[in-house]
Amino acid sequence: MDEKKWLAAEFEANRAHLKAAAYRMLGSRSEADDAVQEAWLRLNRTDTSDVGNLGGWLTTVVARICLDMLRTRKTRREEPLEMPIHAVIADPANDPERDAAFAESVGLALLVVLQTLAPAERVAFVLHDMFDLPFDEIASIIGRSSAATRQLASRARRRVQGIDETTAVDLGRKRTIAEAFLAASRKGDLAALIAVLAPDVAFRPDATAARFGAVGEVRGAPAVAELFKGRAQAAEAAIVDGDVGFVVRIDGEVRVLVALTIADGVIVAIDAFADPDHLEKVEYSVLSN
Predict the structure, then answer these.
(1) Of residues 139 and 73, which shows the higher confidence score?
(2) 18-32, 86-100, 259-273 — which one is most confidently predicted on average?
(3) What residue ranges are annotated as transmembrane (predicted)?
(4) What domain range includes position 221?
(5) Per-residue three-class SS string for 220-238
(6) Would you say 201 and 270 are in contact if contact means Cβ atoms under 8 Å apart?
(7) Structural domain contains residue 263
(8) In 3D, which of 102, 166, 117 has the Cα closest to residue 129?
(9) How many helices (H) and strands (E) does the chain have?
(10) Residue 282's domain is classified under what CATH number?
(11) What is the bridge-based pairing of β-strands 197-205 and 253-263?
(12) Which of 16, 46, 72 is where one domain is finished?
């Protein structure tokens, strides 16, 4: 077997592992595919004759690509749902596939939590705790000392473990509902919007947000759905003050933060904040698709 065929075979043997690592670091299947493909291109441009462990080399390359992607991630408008909505938010007591749905929601919830971490924290945690890479190897990837890398992973671990299973699943389900709302808004689908809104849902903007939208408080699912019809084009799902919501960017700058109150599988309140002083005080983290 010539060298090119051998490299291709070795890469294919490692592809599933590389994609799994990339997905956990990036939280996006499409971006994980891109990272793995970029690793393949780099493999073909690199002299690997001195590489003793090609699998380890590929893992390092994918991790560095993912770290760069996390650091430079920009606004995206991909379809946000990678699985059917009902598979996550259905009542487990009435869902015959509840075990599969539960497993999916736990996985989604973990990704939600991971996306609240800084890029270096996330890479350190995923590579060490999920893929058992030594801290010395991870340190060379993220450009930190081994001791600093250990601290990053430890801090990330505490944050992940700080959310119990019930809360994590709930957070994953809330994200799915929020993304369903955004998808319906972008498509202008009134019926889908109303489906995720409580009948007496309230939209409550602060004074600055009200001026942006030329509208004050709005109540009732039909009126709120009409208000958001086709209007979420620049919105991104996010963790806002520890709960699910979304952000709106204008010219690359976050101008509006939206907090969602979700109960019993529907959105019961939508609070929008655009006052600059308030925005500086609110902690938020944009969630990738």
Answers:
(1) 139
(2) 259-273
(3) none
(4) 190-286
(5) CHHHHHHHHCCCCCCEEEE
(6) yes
(7) yes
(8) 117
(9) 13, 7
(10) 3.10.450
(11) unpaired
(12) 72
User: For residue range 97-141, what is the model confidence (pLDDT) as tens digits?
Assistant: 444 444 444 455 566 667 777 888 889 999 998 888 999 999 999
pLDDT tens-digit profile of 154-194? Answer: 888 887 776 655 565 677 788 889 989 999 999 999 999 99
What is the model's pLDDT at position 82?
A: 37
Contact call for residues 148 and 90 (beta carbons, < 8 A): no
pLDDT of residue 1: 55
Structure tokens at 47: 């002299």
**CB contact at 8 A, 47 and 24:** no
Instruction: Give percent of the chain above pLDDT 70.
Output: 81
The domain boundary, picked from 40, 72, 104, lies at: 72
Task: Confirm whether 14 is domain-assigned.
Answer: yes
The one-letter code for the residue type at 276 is: P
Are the beta carbons of 31 and 288 closer than 8 angstroms?
Answer: yes
Q: What is the pLDDT of residue 91?
A: 33
The whole-angstrom separation of Cα 43 and Cα 39 is 6
CATH code: domain of residue 50 = 1.10.1740.10
Spatial separation of the C-alpha atoms in residues 43 and 49, rounded to whole Å: 11
* Buried-exposed string 242-264: b where 16+ CB fall within 10 A, e elsewhere: eebbbbbeeeeebbbbbbbbbee
The answer to whether the predicted template modeling score (pTM) of the entire model surpasses 0.70 is: no
DSSP structure class, residue 287: P
* The pLDDT of residue 190: 93
Q: What sign has the CA pseudo-torsion 169, 194, 207, 256? A: positive
Checking 218-225 for CB contacts under 8 A at 24+ apart, the result is: 221/193, 221/194, 221/197, 222/194, 224/193, 224/197, 224/270, 225/190, 225/193, 225/194, 225/197
Q: Does residue 100 fall inside a structural domain? A: no
Q: Give yes or no for a contact between 24 and 114, defined as CB atoms under 8 angstroms apart.
A: yes
Q: Two tokens at 141?
A: 């990837």
Of the pLDDT bands very low, low, confident and very high (cuts 50, 70, 90), residue 83 is very low
Tally the domains of the chain. Answer: 2
164 found inside a domain: no
